[in-house]
Input
Amino acid sequence: MLDNLKEYIKMFFNSRLLPITVVFVLLFSILVNRMFELQIVDRDNIIASGASNTIKEKDIKATRGNIYDCNGKLLAYNKLSYNIVFSETSKLSGMTNDEKNQMIHRLLYILQKQGNELSVEYYLQYEKGKLQYQVEGSSLERYQADAYSVQGGVKALTQEQKDTTPQEMYDYLIKKFEISDSYDQDTAIDILAVRYAMFINRYAKFQDIILAKNVNENTVAAIKENSELLPGVDIDQNTSRVYKKSKYFAHMLGYTGSISAEKLEELQKDGEESVYSVDDQIGISGLESTYEEYLRGTKGSKEITVDGGTSRIISEKTTKDPVAGNDLYLTIDAKLQEECYHLLEERIAGILISNINNSMYAGTRGHSTKDIRVPIYDVYNAIIQNNIVNVERFNDDDASVLEKATLNKYKAKKKVIVGVEEGAEKMMEAVNSVPVIEDIKGEPGTNAGGMLEKVRQVMSNLTNQHPKDIKIQDLLAVDTYNPQKIKGGLANEFSLESAVGIAAMVKADRLQMKMIAEELTDRLKIPVYVGGVEADMAIKGALTTPGTNVPLAIVDMGAGSTDASIKDRDGNVKLVHLAGAGNMVTLLIQSELGLEDFNTAEDIKKYSLAKVESLFHIRHEDGTVQFFEQPLDPNVFAKVVLVKEDGELVPLEGQDSMEKIKMVRTNAKKKVFVTNAIRSLAKVSPTGNVRDIEFVVLVGGSALDFEVPTLVTDALSQYNIVAGRGNIRGCEGPRNAVATGLAMSCADV
Output
């Protein structure tokens, strides 16, 4: 029997069944091992993961019914749109407050870059530089009760809680959500608004929070690309209401909008909580409101299972299909309505024409509207503003003197809007397109808006004037970038984030200087007077440079501003005061090199660079090599250093090469000083053309720079302008031009 068994085994190993058997045995072993891991080794983890899965019930919005006229002409319909929504996830729940705030800040940057705004409700907002509540009455009390998490709601509020000021509420919530003071006030308000929306939604996490509505496709793409960094943020397809030829039918059709908290509460009292939710659109006025129930349709619902570990959707199941709203057919004839509208337009235009007077100001006014007179000046501006007349032709070479004058008048009243995301070039085109700038304002809720508002507020505090009386009359924008450290990087990796640097110039008046003069008089017990205009005094001082004479133009390059003035043979002086100078250069260097210390950036601006290649020699940025008899400090070996005036070598920390630092420094000076030199001279030129200026003298502290005068003179040489540094009184170089001019002016008196 044993021999038979041996023979059978021998036959088996020699047969073709052996490889197949081996494969089956191997696969069976793998299967058994995997079952062991799942049932024994990973049993607890799998149970925990399954338990952490979340099942959400979400509404499926019903399509709102269309509105037609009596002939079936479409008047109101829906189009596909995208909303940015937020829902709580397990990943977000595990994040710290600071991590949540950073995530929201990242989202805000994407929205602002693409020109979108937050749709969350703001209960606190800055108005004229002061925090104000955006709700009142019962809505304010409800907000206070929610913010303080008062058990029992509004009725349980204490008097102290009811008396909470906007600033106290802001400070309380900032501390509650741990929002860093590193954010500017507008960004902090935005982050606070989102955090508060998340906070009050904590007991209804199955409902999404709408963060932004009707966003464009670029925003959708940016959100999807950064989905890993934006946990809980998602794209929701929706519909937006569109009205055809709305100006003819708006008063009848009305409009839709987001349901208010008060309206939702009112409907819920009436038993309508299953029909509406906080993010629904509802008819606000007109036929949209009157026929709301008929048009709205019936919502559907779906069940969503979300993986507790990855926050990814595991499955979706529709539990109830939505039912579209009914279409509404009106008795209105759209064509007849349009014709009636045009007839009224003509009638009103006839009344307007009959009351126009040839004046820049409003005419006589009586007790009747027939006595009102309309200034022709306002009529012309309205005609041009509404593109009834194409004024671009007025700029052609063959345009008449009257046409060119009309264009200049129009530009003087022109309002130009440009987005920061369009870049510095577009912003400066807008600034330069307006001959006389009355004021520059930023959109509320944006970084630019916050910066300009801060400038306005600071000047308001300094001069004891109301912020609305502070006018920003010049702006310099330059393209730059900010190095951003990558979170979680192992080798200090960073990315370069495009940005726009902005310097603003507030209209100067004598009020602040008068206050300083009064304070000096009080302290020194010596009469102190305010005299002269800076650019005017500068040209007086510049004319003390040997060999100079009128006509002469100067560019005064200081720390905070760039001034220019020109004096003709008759003694007439034309001057301008522009934003941006030495301090802006320093800030650009600090930003682009990612420096924490402002003083280091200031030194990089002022001093040349060198690379310490051994303990006995250095290579300067111009390529020359300098040798030393004594060994250098070992701390500077192999480092990029600043070469100060006394020969001191100051090492720079960081990994940036000498070439990169030099490039950043030089480009910053070009962006500010070269740009402003050409801008300022164009503004003071009698013809508006820089080429018509013959001689330019450079003065001011920045004219002492080892690099700036060369950059500016090289740029001006392209316009056939002879330019050079001043030598005040033949001994001071470009310094003390203003002081010298002021002294000369007082001596003349």
Observations:
- The radius of gyration is 36 Å.
- Residues 2-41 form one domain.
